[in-house]
Structure formats: structure tokens, C-alpha cells
Amino acid sequence: MFSSFSGGGSLRLASRCILRSSKSVVSNPSSQQQQQKMTTVMCRGRFDLPSRVSSISKAKTIRGNNKFFSSAGKETAKAGETKAAAAAKTAAETAEKPGWWKSPEFWGFAGSIAAWGMSGAAIYDSALQGPEVISLTMTPVLMVYSGLFARWAWVVQPRNLSLMYCHIANVIAQTNQMRRALEYKISNGEEEQVKEMLQQVGVLGGVTAAAIVGGPTARTALTGANLGVLSSIAAADAGPFTVHFWAPMSKVFISGASMLDLNRPTDQISLPQYAALTATGFFFTRYALLVTPINYTLSSVNVALFLSSLWHFSRKIKADYIDSDSDKQ
Asked: In terms of pLDDT, which residue wins out, 294 or 71?
């Protein structure tokens, strides 16, 4: 009985509490506002769900499109980089390969071919012509000249191996020509002239050897002496203590020898030799301005060599082919 009463009392007490809570919610405006807010939020969440789904799908589409355009952009950028690399390579090749007018390789090769003609002329003369056509003035000069230019062709930039080899061959050929000429002079009783010639060759060879051996030491001493202009000249890349100076000077001797013999009898002029000297002077006039270091002395000397050799070459052509034909008629 007591338990049933107690249970009923508890039920009534719970009912009263619920009723009071309901009344307080109804009577309290702030609680009503909170409930409305909660309802609105729940409604918005329920009714905004499709739009949210649509937004998510749009975002996925945009991401997909971005991915597509990103791949296409990468491919476009890669193609652009390839074209730029090709253009840069073409420009580099064009810069590395200048035209023939500015190419030291072209003029150096042409000059070496002309120099090979000079060596070939000496070989040709020794095989097919008598020793009487050999010039004892020109031959020793050519020996020294080729010796110096063999060294010059090795140290100049760009290095010219073809020119070096041809000058080594010319030293050998001209030495043989000198031997033939001296034997011819001795056989004709001209021993005094031979002795004088050998003395001149000895002096020239001794001066050349002293310059080659002592040049670097003298250059170092003068450069470190702080003598102003003199020290600057000594330190120059193509200064008087380098082969870049003495190789052109040997061509001065060749030009001088040609000029001293301007009235030389044409029957003593070697046509192949002077044809080679004329071509050498022509090509080296330009070649000397394209090498490193630039050699203005060599260029000017080759102008003189070209003119003097062309003079003898023209006289020989005139005597052998023009005047002789006129006499026959």
C-alpha cells in the first residue's frame, strides 16, 4: 500500500516538474528565441543540403578542370621551353661559327694550304730544276722563317697544326735546296762566295737561337723592372720577346730579299715558289687580324710580302708566257 502510494507520488511529482518547465519555456522569451534559432538552423541545414551537394560537385568539377588545364599548361610550358632551348642552341651555334670572313679557321687553313705550296715548290724545284735557280739570299731566310712559324703555329690561338707541319716540311726542303746550291757553287769554283754565305747563315742562326733561348728571361726581367713604356712593351702578348714578334720579322726579311732582287733575271725566278709566297701574303694579311693575340705586325708584313712576290710572279709570267709567245709569232 505504502509502495503504491509512494510510486504514485513520484509520478505526480515528475508531472508537476515537466509542467513547470513547459510554463517557464513559454513564459520566458529568451528561451523561445533560442528554440526558434535552433529550429531555423536545423531547417537551414536540412533545406541547404542540396545546395551544399551542388557546391561540392561544382568544386570537384573545378578541381578536375584545374587538373586538366594544369596538365595542358605544363605541356604548353614544356613545349615553350623546348623551343627556347632550340633557339638558344641555334644562336650559340651561330655565335660559335662565324662567317668565313671572320673565321680564323678558314683563313688559317687557306694560309696553310698556300704555305704547303711553298714547301711543295721547294720539293718540286729540287726534283725537276737545276741548282742554278736556287737563291742563296732567299733560301736561308726561308729556313729561319719556317722554323719560327712552326713554333708560332703551335702557340697561337686557335692552334694551326696544318701550318706547323707544312713549315717543318719547308725547313727540311729548304735545307736540301741550300745543300744543292752550295754544292753547285763549289763545283763552279765559287768557294769564297760559299764561305761568305755560310757565315751569314751562321750569324742569322745564332741570333735567332739566342733570341729564342734568352727571350723569356729578358722579358721577365724587363717586365718586373718597372721601366714604364719599355716594361709595357716587353710584357705585351706579341712583344719583341715572343715568337709572335719574330715570326713576322722573318717575313720582313723575305719581303726585303724579294725587294732587293726586284731586277733579278726571270730565268732565276721559281714560278711555283713565288706563286706560293704571293698566296701566303694574301691570306695571312687577313688571318693575322683574327688570331689571338692579334698581330698587326704580321698583317702589315704580309701586305709587303704579297706586293713584292706578286711583282716577281708577274715578271715571270710575262717573260715565260707572254713575251715568249710574242717572239714565236
From this structure: 294
